[in-house]
Every structure is written in structure tokens, then in C-alpha cells.
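Dear colleague,

Following up on Tuesday's group meeting, I ran the structure prediction for the two-component complex that the binding team flagged. I've pasted the input sequences exactly as they went in, so you can double-check that nothing got truncated or mislabelled along the way. The C-alpha cells for the whole assembly follow below. Feel free to forward this to whoever is handling the docking comparison.

Inputs:
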Amino acid sequence: MNNPQETRRVWPEKLFYGLCLSAVIIPLGILVLLLGKVGMDGVARIDWGFITHYPSRLPARAGILPAMVGSIYLIGLTALIAVPVGIGAAIYLQEYGKNSRWADMIELNIANLAGVPSIIYGLLGLGFFVRTLGMGRSLLAGACTLALLILPVIIMSAREALRTVPDRTREAAYGLGATQWQVVRQVVLPVAMPGMMTGSILAISRAIGETAPLIVVGALTYLTFLPNSPFSAFSALPIQIYNWVSRPQEAFVTNAASGIIVLLVIMLVMNSLAILLRNRLERRLK
Amino acid sequence: MSENPAEVPAPLPVKFRVENLRAGFGDNEVLHGIDMVVPDRGVTAIIGPSGCGKSTLIRCLNRMHELVPSAFVSGSVHLEDTDIYAGAVDPVLLRRRVGMVFQKPNPFPSMSIRENVLAGLKLTGSLDKSTADEIMERALNHAALWDEVKDRLDDRGTGLSGGQQQRLCIARSLAVSPDVLLMDEPCSALDPIATARIEDLIHQLKEHYTIVIVTHNMQQAARASDKTAFLLMGELVEMTETKTLFTSPSDRRTEDYITGKFG
């Protein structure tokens, strides 16, 4: 062990291990601190009234109900639009457009779109969904905008999942006389589905917290009713939180912290449901 | 298949007639005009050094070759009386008649052993629940795998050993009752014991099916086949009875290859 050569060999090993470990610990520590701070600030304010009340100019009476319901609808609608379209696009690119210039070019553009700032999507949503298509400042316009925002991520992760299905598995199915649709539907998708779901879940989690595009599209901060159709005006949690944080009164900032807790809980619940669903789809064989 | 030399064999009916087959990828022509006749029943082996076009040739017989982007084919291949490259032929239906076993065992990873065997029927929507178990058992029996797996039919197909997986793939091909079984180096990923089992199996299957097997293993061709074709750089050098090819080849290149001078 005291052999100098041995030491020289072990040294970088330990250094690298330490670096990797700190890369895990530092961000995690910061995250824990942030959550702890939010939790301490906000948990006292959370009660049944906070969850079931409408906003108010009095911080103590203000509640988060419309924002919460708005967020849940918004995310549900976004997922409903983005996941099928995203997975469909990935299937086209990977299974049908395979190796064509055209598909490569589309993919390059999609990768770039994933890097476009979300406010740009907001402006696009305002111009296209709200005005041109006449959806107005509605839940649907918001969901379409968010769907557009997360589509690139869903498409790319779904395509990645499809890539992990080896070609020899596809060939086996073709060799049995399956059509392309049968190969995709019954052989490729079952194998790729868990991976595609994981990518979609991550993308949707991102959409839950998006604020900028919703502000541009016109989510409201003061609502006295719940959205009752896709064409209703709506509010969303990040918008409500943003609004409260920018108020001068201290009590509203506490409300914001409580709102963050609600947002996090909703995100966790939605992710857990999605993961449960994924695990059910993923057939367990010995 | 008359084993008795005293008996004069009737001319065998023809299964495949390959005429002036040219095939390749993009600018690279792999097969430079192959003419070949594969008899009905029995085993036809295709041997030759790596890269000579064996796999391309066998994949042209059930139109798997064209699945690769940039692949091209010209010439003709007749399966009995049908030109399989004629416009009216649906490659999907052709592949149900001409099954294929691949180099590496490729059971479907998301399926159990039972589902793997029945996959061909299920995929194509022709699975009849009432006969499914019977078909599965018969296919696994034909593939000499039934006794090893009958107690764990619901386990994952990919959990079997390599040799078992390859027999599972053979069972899967047999379950759709093809006429022809194409085997593309089916033993190259297997150990000698598993290889011997597959060869035994080929021996039994040839009574009922036409088998075309690609192999880079000359002993395997000599042991398992009735006829052998020697392919070199995309040309068919010689094709004749296996015994004749290995004992008195008529072409110098064949002799050099089978005596190990190259390849």
C-alpha cells in the first residue's frame, strides 16, 4: 500500500470520486436549503381555507383555488396535446423517415427548438393561438403554448427511446410477416414505452412551473370563478405565486411560499401518478 | 431425400429459382448476377468467406434485403411459380411463407416464451385462441425446446440461454407454418453443444421444410446440408451435392477455399 506507484495510481481515483460526489452533494444541499426556507415560510399559512378560497386583496383571506385548479387543467390539457403528438412525431422520424435527409433536418431543427427561451413560445402563442386562431386568453391557448414548448423535449426523448430498440428485434418481426404498423405497434412500442413515458413526464414537470409564456398568453391573477371549459379564462400557480411575490405586503410573500408548496405537491402527485401508469404499462416478466 | 445410392432419385421439384440476381447497397453492388436453384425440401447451404454476399443472397429470398435503406435488387427470384419481385407480390405475405432465423438470437424482449412462439400469429392478427396452446406446443416440440421450457412458459424469452433463445426463434418461425426456413448463420453466436443441437434440429426439420442455411463454418455445411453453394465476392462459383463439393470440387477456387488456402 505504501508503494509510491500504488499511491500515484490511487490518488486520481479518489480525487475523481470526490469531485463526482460533490457534484451530487452541492446542488442537493442548495435544493434542500431552498425547500427548507420555503417550507418554514409557507407551511404555517397552508390550511383548508388557503386551498379553497379565491384570491383577495387581504392576504389572510386570499386563497389559491383558481390557480390550483387552473394549473391542474392546464397540465392535463398540455399532456393530452403534447404527448400523443410528440410520440407520433418521434415514431415518424425514427421508424418511417429513418435515414432520410428530411428526417435528419427536422431533427436538427427540433433540437434547436428545445433551446429556444420559453418567452418566445409565449409570444408565438399570443400571436398564433390567442389571436390568429381566435382562442382568446383561454386555457386552451395556454395549453397549446405549453405543449409547443415541451414538444421538442418529448420528441427527442421518445426518439431516443425508440433508438434503444435493436434493429434485430424489428427484423425478427418483419421476418414473421408483420407489416410496419404491426412491427411498430406490437414490438417496438412496448419496448420503448417506458423510456418515452419517462421523457414525457420530465417535460410535463417542466411545463407545470412555466410562468413566462403564460404571462404573455394572458393568464389572469384575479379570478372569481373556476375554468369550466377549455375556452375559459384561467390562472395558474406560477402566475399566482409571481403575483404575490411582487406585492409589497410581507403577508403576501408568505402566501407565495405557501403557493410554492402547493405547486410542488401537485407536481409530485402528478409525477407519481405518471410513474405508476408507466409501471403498469411496463409488463413485468420474470 | 434418397440416402440409398442404388435408388435413382427423381428430379427434385424446385423451390427457388434465382436468375441473374444483382443486389447491394447504394453504389456498392454485393451480388453480381447470381443464378441458383434451390430444391424443394432438404437443406441447401451457402458457404463462402466473410463479405462474399451470403447474407445478402439469403435476405433476397424473403425480401428482407430491401428493408435496409439504400438497398437495391434486380434480376428475378421465383418461389415455385411466383416471381417474388413482381409488383403484385406483397413482401409481408411472402415472409409468412418464407421464415427467417437470424445470426444472433432475437426473441422479443417484452414477451414471454409463450408469447414469443405465438408472436408471428399475434402480430399478423391470425391467432386463434382455441388452437394457440396446441400450435405453441407443436412449434416448441419441433424446435426441440418443449421439454426445457414447458414449466416456465410465462418467463421472459430473453432469460433463456443463447442456444435456447435460438431454438425459441426457430419455434417462433415454425409457428406461422412457413414452407421455407432461411437461416442466416444461426449458430455463429452459440457454443459447440448448442450448435450440435441446432444441427440435429435442422436434420429433423428438413423432412418438412425447405431449409436454406448460410454458414461460414464448412464443417457445418458438410454435416448438415444436402446441397452446397460456394459464393465468392458476389459470384456463385459452384453449387452441387454437398458430398461432391467437399470431395471433388470442380472449380479451383472452391478447392482452395475448402482446403483452407484462404478465407
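Chain B has ten helices and ten strands.

Cheers,
M.
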